[in-house]
Design brief:
The structure is a single chain. This protein is α+β, with helices and mostly antiparallel strands and 158 residues long. It is 28% helix and 25% strand. The chain contains 4 helices and 7 strands, in the order H-E-E-E-H-H-E-E-E-E-H. The strands form 2 sheets. It has a 4-stranded antiparallel sheet with strand order 4-7-6-5, covered by helices on one side. A hairpin with a 2-residue loop joins strand 2 and strand 3. The longest helix has 15 residues. The mean pLDDT is 85.
Length: 158
């Protein structure tokens, strides 16, 4: 079943089964399946299995009007406020956590993505490189990366 579902087998610890991959005879040939028997096997296989699948994103249950926007009182606050008001309409954005220090040399819209659901966004169309940090509903790095792709696609232009 692990081969059919591109998943992993689960076995009880035994010297014969203590291998991260097991070989199974199938249709006169031999196929390899992932095997989880120890914590080390989990560390080997689970990240790969998760990265092969499209992440299941959850939406924020707050209305856009109820989402918080926190910005430093600094240059560019008007432009950041306008951008943030658009950004909080994204169903995966929980709130705008803070504004970033200037990144005038940054040309990428997504500056950094963190495992805890935070995404640093720079507005490369501004001279000073204004930016914000947003909290998303991403629970894993892969989910947050996918949310970053969605945000960039929808909000990454002027």
């Amino acid at each position: 079943m692990a081969i059919v579902l591109n998943s992993a087998t689960l076995s009880i610890y035994d010297l014969d089964w203590n291998e991260p991959f097991i070989h199974i005879m199938k249709d006169g040939g031999r196929d390899t399946a992932r095997n989880i028997c120890t914590k080390q096997h989990v560390d080997i296989h689970i990240p790969q299995i998760q990265s092969d699948q499209e992440p299941e994103l959850i939406e924020c249950n707050l209305r856009a009007e109820d989402k918080e926007i926190v910005l430093r009182d600094d240059h560019g606050i008007d432009e950041l406020k306008n951008f943030s008001k658009r950004l909080i309409r994204c169903p995966y954005v929980v709130k705008v956590v803070n504004s970033l220090p200037f990144n005038s040399r940054e040309r990428k819209f997504i500056r950094r993505i963190r495992e805890n659901g935070l995404i640093e966004i720079v507005l490369p169309w501004t001279d000073k490189g204004y930016g914000v940090v947003v909290k998303t509903t991403g629970r894993t790095l892969r989910e947050t990366e996918r949310i970053g792709e969605i945000i960039e696609e929808k909000y990454g232009g002027i």
